[in-house]
Amino acid sequence: VLTRLLTPEIFGLMALAQVFMQGIEMLGDVGTRASVVRSRREDPDFLNTVWTVQILRGLAIGLVTCLLAWPASRLYDRPILFPVICAISLTAVLAGFVSISVSRAERQMALKRITLAGIGVQIVGTLLTILAAWILGSVWALVIGAVLSSALQLAMTHVILPPFAHRFRL
Known about the structure:
Layout: H1 2-5, H2 8-27, H3 32-38, H4 44-75, H5 81-96, H6 101-107, H7 112-136, H8 139-159
């Protein structure tokens, strides 16, 4: 459906933004989720510290991405790439606030809720992206879809998974 609503150039532009974003995220991986999955600690101080580091990482990735967006847009000679990459960086910021309950559920192999939430987010995110593409017909439809999907994923991790009293802690 999206290929009928948007031109191939729009998908190429979004692919450039996503690859740029993914590269920065991979360079900034500090292993917070893996540390929770591998550790047997259920200490709230430990889990809150991991969550805080995850948030700081998301904010740092968002900031670095925005700082490097202008040179990237100049490199590819696509001025629209600058605001697109800056907007896409919101997905990293939102991902930083994802509940630590996701990692706890992965450790306990309780993947049913995570999987169902992920499928629900994909379906709703796709429908929102299609709606945005139908209305806007530009790369901003894909950007809006990505950011709204990240926001929905964030909300789902705090609503569907077992609650955890998140507190900022270092």
